[in-house]
Amino acid sequence: MGILGDVDIRVKDGGLGRVASGADVLGVVGVGSVARSTVALLSSFDDVKAKVGDGPLRDFLEGVYSQIVVPCYARVLPGSTVGTIGSVNVGASNVGVGGLAAAGSPANRYRIKVSIISSGGLNAATFQVSKNGIWGEVTTVPTSGAYLIEGTGITLTFTSGTPDANQLSFAKGDRFTFDTTAPAATNGELLAGVDDLTKQSVIYRHIAVAGVTAAAFWAAFALRLKTLTQKHQWTWGSAGLRNRGAEESTDAYITALTGTERGSVVSKRLMVCASWIDVVDIEGYQAERNAHGKLIGRIFQNGVATSPGWTRLGNLPGVEGLLYEVSPAHIKKLSDAGYAVCRYYDGKKGVYVAGSDLMTEATSDFDTSVRIEVMNKACRMVRDAQFPYLKQGFDVLSDGRVPELSQVIAAGEQALDVMIRDKEISSGRIMLPESQNILATKRISEEIIIVPRGQMDEIRATIQFENPRR
Length: 470
Fold this sequence. Notes:
By secondary structure, this protein is an alpha+beta fold. It is built from ten helices and 22 strands.
């Protein structure tokens, strides 16, 4: 409830009896190489390249824009935790005695390969760089040995070594490889970015935080999302979590995510995506990414009442497979812990959304993104419909009844009827008694009842032959 009078709606959880507009706007926060001090408006992936650059936010938005064009307000952060460059690995079959070093502040998570195309030394040999599977142009090794990989923040330094008369600094076919990590923002920086988004005069269907996050951030983000409802901003949020460590087994990884790293966060407005995927993106890059962006893109493809896991929607585009050899048992364990996950279906090609679970209790009405999205839309629509009646005068009969309150009921139910027509809810009604002490309180109380649409998560059947002549 706000400080000033308004149409306040309190969402009740538990009515299903479960046992033990301009609303299609996306808000995003994350690290990009084109850091900005203000919120940027994006309307295409070309805008992402120009206004976000490279980085975790770019990768998240690629997942969205690979499926749908959506208006997006983005808070691009520079990231106070710089990316790191791993050790340069020398190809086992290298012939040249020259070396390669890499330095700088990587803009994103990269897999870099450097291949010698023609033999020679500095200012003679030629090479080619592959960034996440895309090979660049053939270039001559500079006289200085220094070469900046454009847009990445990484500088290569070639050293000629000390070849004898029968040796080369760099021989055709020599290869060098290394990996980098992406820059990151602190929890405080990410939350400040969320605050910047919500200061805009925009109603967000969803707010996503790109990059790797953990339980401490989820708890703070969930509180922010809950607080927004007091400002009549009914929305929900999502985030992604870490990838598996290099020396970590899949069993240990899943156990950590569902155990100590899960934390005690409980929120009907927060989704955390736990699946990591091998993806070929819309620019041709092959990379390992959290499925977060793909999942939000699938959600925005559809109305609020459509599950992103609906099999008729097909598999996720550009996704080659799930990483870390996760089994159905692993996926179920993650889902049971309240994470959103992806899955395979036996005999079907590609990766599908298993569920868009929210971080709620087992008995919550709001177990998936569909439930909270439907409720958010109902709150927005009823408020908009009833808003014109604030401060209106109403006749009060001698027995205290206020028959004209039927106008308020009708306005709200017309909004619900639109959702019924659009197959977003099964039914809805508003209960507003005529006998209300409007003279003393200047306030009325109503109850909004919604029956959501059902969803079938599995089919169980028996099959047998029949002899019609028997």
